[in-house]
Design brief:
Helix content: 55-70%
Shape: elongated
Number of domains: 1
Distance between the termini: 23 Å
Structural class: mainly alpha
Mean pLDDT: 91
Number of strands: 0
Oligomer: single chain
Radius of gyration: 14 Å
């Protein structure tokens, strides 16, 4: 897997995951939406950790910073 997620993207995804976990735990209670929010939060965290987004590869996107050679 080639990394296609840049540093800024990783930070934004991590912050979004924290917000989703908070919403799932505190705001939306006792509904199936809790699980949806948790799943999206976990996906965002995994993408931030591994630096690879499957949707980016489908759409040929890349947010990593390229070094000039």
């Amino acid at each position: 897997m080639k990394k296609n997620v840049g540093q800024t993207d990783k930070i934004l995804r991590t912050l979004a995951a924290v917000v989703l976990f908070y919403l799932a735990h505190q705001v939306v209670t006792e509904t199936p939406w809790n699980y949806v929010l948790y799943i999206f939060g976990v996906v965002f965290v995994l993408v931030a950790i591994f630096g690879f987004c499957p949707l980016y590869s489908v759409f040929k996107m890349d947010t990593t910073e390229k070094k000039e050679e």
